[in-house]
Fold these 2 entries.
Entry 1:
Amino acid sequence: MTEITPILMPKWGLSMQEGKLTDWHIKEGDEVSVGDEIMDVETDKITNVVEAADGGTVRRIVGTAGEVYPVRALLAVMAPSSVSDADIEAYVNAYEMPANDTEDEDTGPAYHFVDLPVGKIRYSEQTGDKADQTPIVLIHGFGGDLDNWLFNIDALAEHAPVYAIDLPGHGQSVKSVDPQDPAIFTQTLLDFMDHCDITRAHLVGHSMGGLVAGATALDHPDRVASLTLICSAGLGEDINADYIDGFVNATGRKDLKPVLTHLFYNQSLVSRAMVQDLLKYKRLDGVQDFLTKLSAAAFNAGKQARIIADDLAALDLPITVIWGENDAIIPASHAENLKRVTPHVLGSAGHMVQMEHAGEVNKIIASAIS
Amino acid sequence: MARIISMKDAVNEALDQEMSRDPTVIMMGEDIVGGSGAPGEDDAWGGVLGVSKGLYHKHPNQMLDTPLSESAYVGAAIGAATAGLRPVAELMFVDFIGVCLDQVFNQAAKFRYMFGGKAETPVVIRAMCGAGFRAAAQHSQMLTPLFTHIPGLKVVCPSNAYDTKGLLIQSIRDNDPVIFLEHKNLYASTCDVPEEPYTIPFGEANIVREGGDVTIVTYGQMVQRAEQAADMLKKDGIEAEIIDLRTLSPIDMDTVLESVEMTGRLVCVDEANPRCSIAADISANVAQDGFDDLKAPIQMVTAPHSPVPFSPSLEDIYIPSAQSIADAARKTMEG
C-alpha cells in the first residue's frame, strides 16, 4: 500500500505534543498539489497553515476540525484512484494512533548542548530512516535561533539527518562572545561539525545564516556538499536598517511586536508567544550588548558590510536560492545577484519564508540535496 | 539553557548569581544561614523554608545571620545601602513589617526625595506573603496595598518562577528600595527558567492569556486562580484576557486600559483585603480613564474585610476562588 500517503498532525519543535486542527482547506475527492494549503493547526506557541508536502487525491478525511490531536495522529489519507476503498479503510484502521502523553522522543528532534572552544552551543539533531545520507545543517539568522526551523526539521529528516544550531550569542548558546571577530560563526560551525563527526554537510542558511553558510563554503569547500541560501545576507548591500535597529533597541512587548511584523507577509503570524520568547532571549545578560556589537559589525551605514555573491558564483558547488517575494528585510531582488543560479522566489511570503511556506521550502531543499 | 525549576529555586538562583556577579550584594536576615539549633554550616537552614539553602558555602562573606530584631537589621540594611552596598534583607513573613516600618517608609522611601535626588538606597526587602499556608492571621497577610501606597518604594509580587528570577535580579540592580513579596504557596510551582541571569523591567504587565470578552487583572497567587476561572469561562464560550501586573509600583495601567478598550469588561482580582486595595486602585483608574470603553460595571474579587482565619475551612473560603472570579466575569457579561 505504498501509494497511500497519510496526512499527519505535524510536530513543530521539541515541546509540541499535540495540536488543534482548527480548519480543513481540503475535502474528500480534492486533487492536492505540493504547497497547497491543506489545514490550519494551532498550538500553544503558534498557529499556522499546513501545506501539502506531497501531491495526490484526498480519499479520506479522518480528523475533525476543532479537535485536538497528538503529534503524528492520522488526519487524512491521499491515494490514487487505483487504490480501493477497502484498502483505504484497512489503512485507516491499521494506523496506530500515537498516545497523547508521548514520553517517547525517538522520532522528534532532541536538544543537545556541547562545549566548543567558543563556549556552550545548543543544537538539535533529528535522524530518521536516512541516517546514511549526507546531513543537513540549518543555520538561523540575526537574532534568531534553531526554532526558526520549527516547520522544516521534521519534514527534512525524511531525506537526511537534520542538525540545527543556535549560533554563538543566540538562542540558548553562549552569550559572552565578541561578534566583532568575523570568524566566530564560521569557526563555530566547523567546530560543531567536527563534534558531530560531520565531514560534509548540506548547509542551509537563513538571512545572516546564509552568509555564514556561504563564507564557510568559500573557506572550506571540502566540508560543504551544497548550499541553500534563504533570504540570504551577503548577496547585495541593501538591508532594512530600521528593522535591525528596531529589533536591537526594543525593550518591551509594545515596541518589539511592530518590529517583528516586518518579518512576515501574513503579519498575524506574530503571536504573543513569539514576542514573549524573543523578549526572554533579549533580556538575558549580555544579549543586548552582543546584538548591538553584532549589528555594528555586520552593517555599515545602513548597508550590509560583506557581499560574497560573486565569490559564491565562482565556486564549484550546487547552490539553491530561495526568497520570499515580499521580503521587507532583505529585498527579493538580491535573489538575482547570484549569477548562474535560478532562484525560487515564492509569492505571498516575507523574510521568514521557511515558516510561511514551509511545505514548498522543504520540497525545494529536499530536491536540492538529492 | 532553560530547565524547569521551582519558584523557590528561582529565588535561590537569582541571589546566588547576583552575589557572584557583584561582591557588594549581601544578604541579611533571621536564620538565612545556620538557624537556631543547627550544628554548623553544613546543616544550614537557609531561611525558614530553605530558600537561601546552600548559599552560605558559596558566599560566606556576603551573608549575615541576624538577631531576632527586624528593626535592627532592616535599618542596618537600609543604612548599608546608602553607604554603597546592595543588601537584600529577608523579613521572613511580611506581617513582621510593623516593627521596622519607620526604617522602610519614613527613611528608605524618603532619602532620594529629601536629599535632592543625590541619595540612592539600593536595598531589597524580601518577604513571604499571602494566605493558604495554615499560618494564621499574623503570618498570612497580603500587604501589597500598604507598600504601594508609599511613594519611593517599588513593589513586586511575582506569580511564577520565570518572573521571580528576572524580577529579583532587576530588584537587586535597581537603585531604589524594593519590596519583593514571594507568595509562600507558589514556592513549589515550576516552569521553564533560563540558567543565565536575566532581568524583567518594572512596570511591565504580562498578558498571561489573550481573550476578547473580559479582562481579568491580578498578580501573585491569584494569577493561577484566574487561569482556572478562564478555563471555566471558556466552556461557556467566554474568552477572558488575563493580565498579571507583576509589579504594583510602578504599575502598568497602559496595558490594563488597552485591554479594557478591547473587551469593555473588567474584573480586578486581589488577595488583599478590599478597602484601599490594588483591585480598588485599578478600578478607580479605569473608571476615570477608561469609562467610555466600559460596557458593564467593574467587578472586584478580593478577600473579605477580615483577618485571615486560622480555621482551614474558613481560610479556604477567605481566599478568592476560581469560581468567584468566573462568577464575577459572568456578571460583567450580563445585559
Entry 2:
Amino acid sequence: MFSIPTFLESFGPLAMAARFTLLVSGLGIALGLVIGALVCACALSKSRGLRRFAAIWVSFLRGVPLLVQLLLMYYLLPVVGISIPALAAAVITVGICASAYISEIWRGAIGALPPGQSEAAEAIGMAPGTIWTRIVLPQAVVMSLPALVNELILLVKASSLVSMVGIMEVTRASQAQAATTFRPLEVYLAAACIYLAINLCLAGIGRWLEHKAAV
Amino acid sequence: MEWSVFQQYGPMLLRGFGITIFCWIMGTILGMALGLMIALAQRYGPRPLRWLLQAYIEVIRGTPFLVQLFVLYYGGPLVGLRLDALPAGLLGLTIYGSPYFAEIFRSGFNAVPKGQIEAARAIGMAEVSIIRRILLPLGLVSALPALVNFSIILTKETVILSIITVPELMYQVSRMSTETFRYLEANFVLALFFWGLVEAISRLGRRFETRITQHLIERV
C-alpha cells in the first residue's frame, strides 16, 4: 500500500538534490541568454553567412532531442581532449540547447516591435547604435520576459534528463532513493511534487511579469 | 571513426526506428483524443470536473516526462498497474501530451467567433450539432498550426522512452554502442538522424497546414 511516511521522508534528500536541478536550469538559462543573444544577432545580421549559421544552429538544436545532445557532448568532449566535470558539461549542453529557443524568442520580440518606433528615432536623428540600446532592446527584453520564464520552466523539466549523465539532481536522487527503499511510487511522486512546486512558483513569477509587461 | 557497425546492426536499428515511429504516431493520436475530450469537458462539464481537469493539466505540465514515466513504470506495479515497457511508454506519452493538446484545443475553441455559435443557436441547432458542425471544424482549423507544432515536439520526446527500456531507436543505439564501444559515432549519427526526421516532419506539417487552411488565405 501507499506508505505516507516513506513519501514524506523522501522529501529530505530530494530537496537537497533540488539544488542541482535549480543550478543546472539556472546556469543553463544564463548561458542560453548569452549564446542566444549572439545567435539572435547573427540571425538579424546583414551577412548571409551569419544568417545561415544561425538558421542551422537553431534548426539542429531544436531538431535533436536533448538526451541525444547530452550523450553526444558526454562522449565527444573526451575525444577532442577536453576534460571538464560532468556538471559543467551538462550545464553547457543545456545552455546551448536553450540558446536556440531563446534566440528565437528574442527574434520574435524584436520583430514584434512596431517599426514606427525605430523610424521615429531615426527621424529625430538618433544614431543606429543608440536606437538599438535605447529603443529596440529595452522594449524587446521586457516583451520577451514571460516567454523566457516559460523557457526556464521547460529547462527545469529538461534538467531531469541530466540525471542520465550522472548528475545527482532530483531525478537521479529519487532513483537512488527508490533503489534503497524499494518504494518507487512514493519516491517518484515526491520528486514530482518537488518539480511541481518549483514550476508553480516560476509560473506565478511569469504571470506577474506578464501583468507588469502588459502595462 | 568506424562506420561498419551500422551495417552489422542495421536491422536492429531499423526495428528500433519502426518502434519510434509507432510510439510517436500512437502517442500523438491518443494524446490528441484525450486532449480533445479534456478540452470539451472543460467547456461543457460541471464546475468540479473543470477544477479537477485544471489540476490535472497543471500537474502534468509541471512535472518532467521522465519522472512521470518512472511513477507509471516503477510505481505502477505497487498499485496493481503492471505494464510492459511499450504499453507503459505509450500510456505515458498519451498522458504527457494530453494537457498540452487540451490547451491547444481550448484556445482553438476560444478563437471561434461567438456570433457563429449564437447564430447556430438562434436558428435552433441542437447543442451537439453545434459542437460537431460549428465548434469543431472552425476550432480545429485555427488550432492546426499549434497541433502540428506539438506533434513535432513529441517526436523528440520518444527518445526518453528508452530509459524505461522501450526498444525504440535510442535504446537500440545505446545497446549497439555498449556492445561495440562506438559511443561517439552512434550518438552522432542518431543526432543527425533526428535532425533530418524533425526537419522532414516540419516540412510535411507546413505543407499539410497550408493545404487545410487554403480557404483562409486571401487571393490577390
